[in-house]
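Supplementary Note 3. Input sequence used for the single-chain structure prediction.
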Amino acid sequence: MPTTTKSRKNSAYQNLMSIHWWMFYCYIILFLGGFFMSRLPREVFGRNLLYDFHKSIGILTMALLTWRILTLLQVWWKKYTKKLPKYTPQWIQKFLLHTSLYIFMLVIPISGFFFSNSFKSNNVRFFGITVPDLFPENKDLVDLSRSIHFWLAYTFLAFIILHSIDQFKVIKAFWRRISKKKLRLRGNLA
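The predicted structure, written as C-alpha cells, is reproduced below.
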C-alpha cells in the first residue's frame, strides 16, 4: 500500500520558508542599494531618497526577522518536542551557521541605526514615518559607525555565501523554479 505524506502547505515550516524568501529579496535590495548609493557623490539628486529607502527596507527586515524568529520557535517546538535532534558534527555546523546568520540579521540593522543616528538625529524613517533614535547624535563616531556597518554587512554576505553553498540543492531547485516561470512567461507573451 502506498504511504501518504502530510502536506505542509499551511504549516509553520511553510510560513518560515515564505518569510525566508521575502527576507532574501529584501537583502538583495539592501546589498545592491547599499553598494550603489554609498558610491554616489553627495550632490546627486535623489541620493537622500535612496538612503531613506535603504533604511526603510532595513527596518522592514527587522520586522520580518521578529516574525521569522517567532515562526522558527513554533517549528522547533513542533519538531523537537517529539524528538530531540541528533547532535552530529553536521547538525552542530548547520546550527552555528544559522545562529551566526540570525545574529547578523539583528546586528547589521542596529549598526545602521548607529551609523544614521551618529550622523544626525531623527533621520531614520520607515517609508516616511520618523523612527525614534536608538543612539545619540555624535559626529565623532560617524566614521567608526560607517566602518562597523560596512564590515558587518560584507561579513554577513560572506556567511550568506557559505549558507548558499551549504544549501546548494535548495538553491538549484529555486533557480530551476525561476527558470520555469520565465519560460512560461515567454510562452504567454508569444
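Residues 12-189 form a domain with the Fumarate Reductase Cytochrome B subunit fold (CATH 1.20.950). The chain has one domain: 12-189.
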